[in-house]
Each structure stands twice: as structure tokens, then as C-alpha cells.
Amino acid sequence: MLPIGPKNQENHYNPSNILITGGCGFIGSNFLNYIFDKWPNSKFVNVDKLILNSDCNYVDSKIRNSDRYKCVLTDIKNTKILESVLVENEVREYT
User: Fold this and answer.
1) Residue 88: helix, strand or coil by DSSP?
2) Own/partner long-range contacts of 80-88 (Cβ < 8 Å, ≥24 apart)
3) What is the pTM assigned to this prediction?
4) In whole angstroms, what is the distance from residue 69 CA to residue 49 CA?
5) Secretion signal: which residues (predicted)?
6) DSSP per residue, 26-87
7) What does pLDDT average to over the chain?
């Protein structure tokens, strides 16, 4: 489990660029909505293909409108696009 407590916490974790797959679904969007303010120096890249009950609007509007957030609508099986997303956004963290 990642430590997400106060900044003065000894093992505080604050990654720089994070890839979230399925971030428009129930679990992914709730994770984004929860963690966004806890990691104020992090940028989030959400990759989702929007099937079944996924919706971009599940992610809070303040996040969707932030320059710290990007949503890429594609299938993670598309390795060519996924690789370019990782490189372009300097992603080193995955959830």
C-alpha cells in the first residue's frame, strides 16, 4: 500500500507522472477523485476505451479541467499508442 499521508510523514510518497488505466470506470475514477489532491505535484494520464459503464464525467470536473490531467481514449491493447503516451508524458508510475 502506498503511503499517502501528510507531507511531513516519514515515508510520504508523491510520484511525478502516473498512468491510470480504466480511469473513467467506477474504481479508476474514484481513485483519481481521491488521490488527485493528495498528490498535488503529480500529473495523471488516464487511458480508457470507454466501454460498458465508463464515462469521462465520473472524473471530477476540477480534475478534467486541470493541466495536471490528461485523458487518452484508446484501448490499452494498442501498444503503439500506449508506448507513445508513456514516452510523451514521461510516465514511470502505473496503477
Assistant:
1) helix
2) 82/47, 85/19, 85/45, 85/47, 86/19
3) 0.82
4) 17
5) none
6) HHHHHHHHHHTTTSTT-EEEEEE---TT--GGGS-HHHHTSTTEEEEES-TT-HHHHHHHHH
7) 89
Q: Which of 7, 55, 63 is nearest to 33 (CA)?
A: 63
Q: How far is CA 94 from CA 10, 46, 53, 79, 83, in A?
A: 23, 10, 22, 15, 13
Q: Per residue in 55-82, pLDDT tens?
A: 999 999 999 999 999 999 999 999 999 9
Cell numbers at residue 57, please?
464525467
Q: Which of 55, 9, 11 is nearest to 33 (CA)?
A: 55
At 20, which helix (H) or strand (E)? strand 17-21
d(CA 17, CA 4): 16
pLDDT in tens, 6-17: 555 555 777 889
